[in-house]
Amino acid sequence: MKKVYICSPCRGDYESNIQRAKEYSRAAAMKGCIPIAPHIYLTQFMDDTIPAERELALSFGRELVLQCDELWAFGLSHPSAGMAGEIEVAKAAGIPVLNGFEEISRVELAPAAAPDPEPQDAGSVTLHLPGPIGSISVEIDARIVCDLAEQFKAQPGAHFDIGPGGEPID
């Protein structure tokens, strides 16, 4: 299996950044990769606010980058200082540095199956959006996302709005 280093911010909105790293790691795992995201677990026993511990944790991360096949950067156009160090190590070692958002959004289409007569619980998707006073989390039934994906596939470049009850508005 391919090992991918999950390179994303830790500092700043600490709790949200750790949650996002978990979501990126899950997405990589669902793509059949082994995600390596040290800031998820190192923060369980090291204190990022203590400079010596932060530097030690960053050095662990840079070492782990070298054990990976690819680095997926989430925020490649504006990396944090910690991310920049990890990206630099990967590039120096010849490890591909990829846009993480592009990698997790690659859709692997399965052959079309007959529609299920009864709707199945498909779970939900949580979107984290910037808001006027901080981040806004919106939970959407995954069936709506799947339905929209089918419509986009049928009509590339189309624009769809979602109305009350999750129904697309033409």
Descriptive tags:
170 residues, 6 helices, 8 strands
Description:
The chain has six helices and eight strands; from the N terminus they run βαβααβαβαββαββ. It has 170 residues and is an alpha/beta fold. The model has no long low-confidence stretch (mean pLDDT 81). It has helices spanning 14-30, 38-41, 51-65, 81-92, 100-105, 142-154; strands at residues 3-7, 34-36, 70-73, 97-99, 124-131, 134-141, 161-162, 168-169. α3 runs parallel beside α4 (81-92).
Tally of helical runs = 6
Strand content: 15-25%
Tell me, rounded to a whole number, the average pLDDT.
81
Name the helix and strand elements from N-terminus to C-terminus, one letter apiece: EHEHHEHEHEEHEE
Largest sheet: 4 strands, parallel
> Cα-atom Rg, whole angstroms?
19 Å
Measured distance between first and last alpha carbons? 42 Å
Helix content: 25-40%
**What is the global morphology?**
globular
Poorly predicted runs are: none
Number of beta-strand segments: 8
